[in-house]
Amino acid sequence: MPKPEMDTRFSKFGTVSFTAVTKVNDFIGYLEEGKVAGTQCTKCGQKFFPPRSDCFACPGEPVEWFEVQGTGKLMTFSELMYAPIGFGEDLPYAIAVLDYGDFKVFGRIGEVPFEEVKIGMEMVTKVNQLPNGNLNYVFEKA
Amino acid sequence: MPKVAVIGVGQSAFVRGYPGSIRELAFEAYAEAMADAGAQNSDIGATVICSSPEYDKQRSPAGVIAEYCGLNPQPTFYVETLCSSSSTGLKLAYSLVASGLHDSVMVLGFQKMSEITSAESQERMGRGADIQFESPFGTMMPAYYAMHAKAYLDHFGASEEDLARIRVKAATYGQINAKAVYRKGVELEQCLSADPVSKPLKVFDCCANADGSSCVIVASEERAKAMGITKPVWILGIGAASMPINMSCRDKFHGLAVAEEAAKQAYAMAGLGPKDINVAEVHDCFTIAEMMAYENLGFAEPGQGPELIRAKETYKEGSIPVNVDGGLLSKGHPIGATGGSQVRTIVLQLRDQAGDMQVKDPQFGLVHNIGGVGLYGNVTIFGR
Prior knowledge:
The structure holds 2 protein chains of 2 kinds.
Chain A: H1 26-32, E1 37-41, E2 47-48, E3 63-67, E4 71-80, E5 93-99, E6 104-109, E7 122-129, E8 135-141
Parallel strand pairs in A: 6-8
Antiparallel strand pairs in A: 1-2, 1-3, 4-5, 4-7, 5-6, 7-8
Chain B: E1 4-11, H1 22-37, E2 46-50, H2 61-68, E3 76-79, H3 85-98, E4 104-112, H4 118-126, H5 141-156, H6 160-174, H7 188-192, E5 196-199, E6 201-202, E7 211-220, H8 221-226, E8 233-242, H9 257-270, E9 279-281, H10 287-296, H11 305-310, H12 327-331, H13 335-350, E10 364-371, E11 376-383
Parallel strand pairs in B: 2-3, 2-4, 9-10
Antiparallel strand pairs in B: 1-7, 1-8, 4-7, 5-6, 8-11, 10-11
Helix pairs in contact in B: 1-2, 3-13, 6-10
């Protein structure tokens, strides 16, 4: 009997992915469609980003996907001048957190001149294709 | 709750490349603490070995270290909470003694970070965050703390110079700590003109990796008496907390909620407040970490941390001396050994044995040890 195929889509997330298999592999499916998605508990309505397959308040209840849309407010960021192994080619780059109100998103800042980046500015989250064929998402000016 | 005393402390020198294996490194702190307590191995009821994995190839290092120190057949436990591993170990040791299960327990923390390159270490440290959703973006500890620094400076209108002042203070005392890895004075201008690592943090805002070990022996009041301990240092309050690992699950970046929560617990248990503390060791892996600690521990009101360092109130002669052993910024930061090293400093202070670093007649001391970027937090209050 052939072995069942393993869904390893998550190994395509980011410059270097440290996770291959997860129950939220559809996150990559959404990225491939140009969408950044989180999950939401179908019972209590809590929104989760990063997405998760389980609501800690309502164990056993299903979650459903929602698309991250509109603008978020930049809470903080930092521009890296050194990088861990595997990320040197990306330098310099900036990591940041966007606040969407009922959830937040951690990620990278995209093609925005760093001198124009300010805490409190409105930004959008966009899917980004990486040179190695992987996908992530970046924050751009709204 | 039964009283629990620290009866012995020890620490290896913190160095860049320790010329021995982890068992030999751990033995250095063990030997010093045993001599300090005047203890025999038969006096130790159990051991708690603390480190953060992935730096050495040894799996389950508690077994190796217990054997090398001759601490079989006592039970041994392995505890890991990243950079706060050995203060978490202290909480476990406290619990074992307070519960009456053991009447003395040794907490032995170690880390030999030079087993791997600095770049590899950054990558491992970065994986002390969320590897599924954060690490793929290329994260490292300086960058996470830099995000906090950026938010802090923006929120309170503080300056990079305020952060640099913390490094200048650390370097002042690092020079007189024979066990510190960095023993040079540092000028404000030197800090400000140094290369950026992750903006706004620059080279001198960051502590160095180091190899090192620390050891703390705790005992019940009866055991301490029976062993003839003349200067027991009592654990009066012990608080611990955790917060979400992923930055997107945090409510703020200009302080560490984990430290506020742990401090609240520790003060309540000790029946003391920030103004009662005479000397403190805080987790200054980066200058911003010490700045936030001033406020999270209640030494300063939110946003007033810069005033505290500008007025030199956290120097040895100030109202609340902080990290007068040079802190992690001077000592280096061998993750698993760090908390125990901080405890050692405070215990020596409360015994009036801190030499050139001695603060005048302290009654109460505090240790603040953070694991990850505000992921784990331990605050412990000691009294003579």
